[in-house]
Amino acid sequence: MRRNGVSAVALAVLMVVSGQLAMAGEKWCAEDPVLTIDGRTVSYTASFPAAYLDGTTVNWTFHIPENVLLATAITPPALGSPEIPSTVRIVRDLPSYEVLANATVITTVTFTSSASFDTSTAVKGLNASWTTYASRSNKKLTFSTGFSALPLLY
Predict the structure, then answer these.
(1) Which of 70, 84, 132, 138: disulfide with 122, CB 3.0–4.6 Å?
(2) What's the mean pLDDT when you consider all of the chain?
(3) Residues 6 or more apart from 6 whose CB is under 8 A from it?
């Protein structure tokens, strides 16, 4: 009986210590922009070390097909993350898409700051898995994401 009690205490101590070690890593800030194009959603996550929050702005430019009827973008902070200053531009400068074909969004993101640090940007288009891109602050990151232009059926 005493042996089980000692084992339980040792297990509890191990869990607390390992949990504290895991939480000792660098804290990151994140924002989760959502781009909606003609009723279709493309989700993004932009992350960087929280130590650089002051003085950092995340600048988004979404290049979309010129025949998109309705395009909106919102940039809420990720759950549990502070609000991050950001700018958003939607530019209709890509070729028109065909109704039964895939369309493309070209995204440019820059983390503007007086400091230099690692950044991470992830994107998830329709019916696709997350793709993550690593970069650095003050460097322009550009990538494309496809989405289905098939009519939405409700």
Answers:
(1) 132
(2) 81
(3) none
Task: Please spell the DSSP secondary structure of 14-68, one letter per residue.
Answer: HHHHHHHHHHTS--EEEE--EEEETTEEEEEEEEEEGGG-TT-EEEEEEEEETT-
In this prediction the pTM is 0.78
Residues 6+ apart with CB under 8 A from 108: 60, 61, 63, 140, 141, 142
Strands in 102-112's sheet, in edge-to-edge order, are 86-94, 57-65, 102-112, 141-148
Tokens linked to 19: 């949990």
- Measured in residues, the chain has a length of 154
Q: How far apart are CA 21 and CA 42, in angstroms?
A: 35
**Residue 81 binned pLDDT confidence (cut-offs 50, 70, 90):** confident
Per-residue pLDDT, 83: 85
Cα 66–chain centre separation: 25
Which one-letter DSSP state was computed for residue 5? H
| Burial zone of 114 (CB within 10 Å; 0-12 exposed, 13-18 middle, 19+ buried) | exposed
Contact 112, 135 (CB under 8 A): no
